[in-house]
């Protein structure tokens, strides 16, 4: 089972009435789920619509294919829409790597991340490192600018900060469950649990070699509007599911997810859970929060259902 969770800032109400499900070729549930969650992220949908242009790749243009599906979602009255164009563009773009090929199942979280990476490439193809383009949805809205550092409490030595960018914050479910068991009865927030799980066992040597083993510190430097948490199911034990479900929280405070947060907005900001992609029995489905109706909607390829409490 694999889940990706999506958080966004509260506010914004651009929804329309329920959008159609996606119906398409064999084994495309991973793509359908990713597309439904992207469509329901108001910030993403609005930003994509407002983008003036892009560097087009024709047949294998993931950007055009995604815009095409979104336009159909907006205007069509059909109950389900084909997402074949995006499936074909994805297969064409990753032909050489033998990934996302037609008829084959693939990973929804990877697919989601790749769509975001491609959007960046279609907007600022020349920028490979730290992307600062104001029009790049991927880096402006989703990316987390982080640095890792080791600070020795014993001798005071600090390592050089190692900066990197993350689109998906991956956490092992085994580590998450271990942290939960350690805190039975404790009232740790979902963010605190995620931080403890993602740094669990990650001890480094003191940069000044004083002999201390020091826990890694991760510092967030920006304020992403949408945060994606990827839960990695790295255990064969199926009894993790209950614990993982119990650990989930509807709100995420960025300052609890990292050792330190430097951006003032990020310090105060609270993100709301708005989407989830689930994997079970070799099949993906998605849950997304529909802003306009304030309801959760369940998507399983062509099936669309309102979630009732
Ligand atoms: Zn294009
Ligand atoms: Zn970018
Ligand atoms: Zn030291």
UniProtKB/TrEMBL annotation:
A GO molecular function held by the record: cysteine-type deubiquitinase activity
PROSITE patterns the UniProt entry points to: USP_3
Stored Gene3D superfamilies: Cysteine proteinases
Domain USP: start-end pairs: 20-309
GO BP terms, alphabetized: protein deubiquitination; response to auditory stimulus; sensory perception of sound
Example of a GO cellular component annotation carried by this entry: cell-cell junction
Keyword Iron: no
UniProt superkingdom: Eukaryota
Protein name in the entry: USP domain-containing protein
Organism expressing this protein natively: Neogobius melanostomus
